[in-house]
Amino acid sequence: MDIRVKICGLTRPEDVAAVAAAGASYAGFVFFPKSPRHVSVATARSLALEAPVGLAKVALVVDAEDGALDEIVEAVPLDMLQLHGHESPERVSELRARYGLPVMKALGVAGAEDMAQIALYEEVADQLLIDAKPPKGADLPGGNGLAFDWRLLSVRKYWRKPWMLAGGLTAGNVREAVQMTGARQVDVSSGVEAGAGVKDAGKIAAFVAALR
Known about the structure:
Number of strands: 10
Oligomer: single chain
């Protein structure tokens, strides 16, 4: 299986090294203070500069204002922005034009009624991330370790843009998830952690190996 893997929520140099050693394609840095995986701009810059050539660096933001995004983009060598809030299709287009970076929009799915939004964002985003919809009242828009009914995606045969599957993935279930949905890219955060916000190199290696 030739599946591209994104490991999100990296906070330490050893995390970046583990992601690169495992053969993942994307490294994600979270800029959201409520998250246990939140990093400062200075930390993200240091981590991104240590990433080897070929490992795409992604900034995850949640309904971020232009000022905060300006600071991130100016300081951190990035390959992509990931919008994980309630950003509208118009906002996605605006940020693509403002920064000249590919934009991935995260969309939460819990039931069939959530599928219609995919077509709207396919018009404007470079990639989509299909994640489990957070529980009502949850502090985090993602990284909650929750899965959704993958059968909702199994019936969608044609995608206009590249997309990633996220939500509750682990080394033990990611292969089944890929087979059921047809995903060619997957995203994981809490599923490769020893504790909240602390990545486990062994779990990262096992996760990527499960798709090889």
